[in-house]
Design brief:
- The protein has 10 helices and 17 strands.
- By secondary structure, it is of the alpha/beta class.
- The protein has 2 domains: 13-23 and 261-363, Beta Barrel (Lyase, Ornithine Decarboxylase, Chain A, domain 1); 25-243, Alpha-Beta Barrel (TIM Barrel), CATH 3.20.20.10.
- Strands 1, 10, 11, 12, 13, 14, 15, 16 and 17 form a 9-stranded mixed sheet that branches. It has an 8-stranded parallel sheet with strand order 2-9-8-7-6-5-4-3, covered by helices on one side.
- The mean pLDDT is 96.
Length: 369
């Protein structure tokens, strides 16, 4: 049951199939506003990652509030930024040969948006240079400060920059770092980690600016860390999850002022025993990358997740007799970003009622058009 006093209550749930991802635009707007309030550093801006939202409407909300630059990972996310008219899109995913024609098509189709990509090796930079020979192309140097996924260690950056300097029309716009390894729930520890990262990147940035004779942008930070960088100067903070937030971040970082804006509507489909409930909420409807619990039921006071399958979720409760087959509940995903990617459309709730749907075009792996 969804209590009438819940901030997520809506009164026409019978019109909505389950499982569905329910989104509350008013909470998204509040989350964007609260993110902007955290930005206090001089010449520091939000450059949000669109990997979480993957749809037009939240981008328009952000742009209406003055946000003009965004980060993305896939080519469909990049095209989405062109469609909405973002001024700048940083594709924080290194290009490979199969993506080059798509990148050319996107840059040609959306001339009002400047597109840049990241590089962490000379071969990738040379490929871009060869493909766009004669056409100005912007790249950012991808830095590894401890996540060990992509990027160069700081000591190897100057050598790459010296090589790129000789590739005419391939311009270095800045440095990029995703510090996804900084996620300690202790705020003091997290601050200490970010201070060390920022100090090292600031020194690198100053050295590169002297070498290149130009100012560079520093694109840095995920949702758990960006509140610390937001107080620094000349940073483009790049969180993404803050738009929708989730149970995982809410549990681990309660001091960060965001609320979940996307929940899954689910129904009880069976009561197999006196202490078990089965929901239509399998791992085809919620991200399965974290171990259990992959979700939270805010309106079930006491339960334990027992098992999950493609289309089913089984929990234990003290007394199943107080629940009914067909009864509706909302679940908060632990990891919202890949959860959104499971849905073709989002169900929109305004003023406690169904208010239409948002398409999720950037969940695809081919061009949106």
């Amino acid at each position: 049951m969804i209590p009438e006093n819940s901030p997520y209550y809506f009164n026409n749930s019978n019109q909505i199939n389950s499982p569905s991802l329910i989104v509350y635009p008013s909470i998204i707007e509040d989350n964007i506003d609260n993110a902007l309030k955290l930005i206090t550093g001089k010449d520091t801006f939000l450059c949000p990652h669109v990997k979480t939202i993957k749809s037009k409407e939240p981008l328009y909300m952000a742009m209406q509030r003055g946000i003009r630059s965004f980060k993305c990972s896939t080519m469909d996310e990049a095209e989405l930024l062109g469609i909405v008219g973002a001024e700048h899109a940083l594709i924080c995913y290194q290009m490979t040969e199969d993506k080059m024609e798509t990148l050319v098509a996107i840059k040609s189709s959306y001339k009002g948006t400047s597109f840049a990509t990241v590089v962490d090796n000379f071969e990738s930079a040379k490929m871009l240079f060869n493909y766009f020979n004669g056409t100005p192309t912007e790249v950012y140097i991808d830095i590894d400060t401890g996540m060990h996924r992509t990027g160069l260690t700081i000591d190897k950056v100057p050598e790459l920059v010296e090589k790129i300097k000789h590739l005419n029309d391939l311009t270095i716009g800045g440095i990029h770092c995703y510090d996804g390894h900084v996620h300690d729930s202790d705020e003091v520890v997290r601050k200490k980690d970010t201070e060390e990262i920022f100090k090292n990147l600031l020194k690198l940035k100053e050295d590169l600016q002297a070498s290149l004779g130009k100012k560079l942008r520093l694109v840095l930070g995920g949702s758990p860390s960006f509140p610390f960088y937001a107080k620094k100067s000349n940073v483009s903070c790049s969180p993404g999850t803050f738009f929708l937030w989730d149970f995982g971040y809410g549990k681990n970082f309660p001091e960060i002022p965001f609320k979940p804006a996307a929940l899954i509507l689910t129904r009880i489909v069976s009561k197999p025993t006196s202490s078990k409930l089965c929901f239509d909420l399998g791992y085809k409807a919620v991200a399965s990358d974290p171990p259990q619990p992959r979700l939270s039921f805010p309106d079930i006071p006491e339960y334990e997740i027992l098992s999950q399958y493609e289309e089913h979720l089984v929990i234990s409760v003290p007394d199943a007799s107080i629940y009914e087959v067909g009864e509706k509940f909302l679940a908060i995903p632990f990891h919202i970003c890949p959860t959104v990617n499971l849905y073709d459309e989002l169900v929109i709730i305004k003023n406690q009622k169904l208010d239409g749907f948002w398409e999720v075009p950037a969940r695809k792996r081919t061009l949106v058009r």
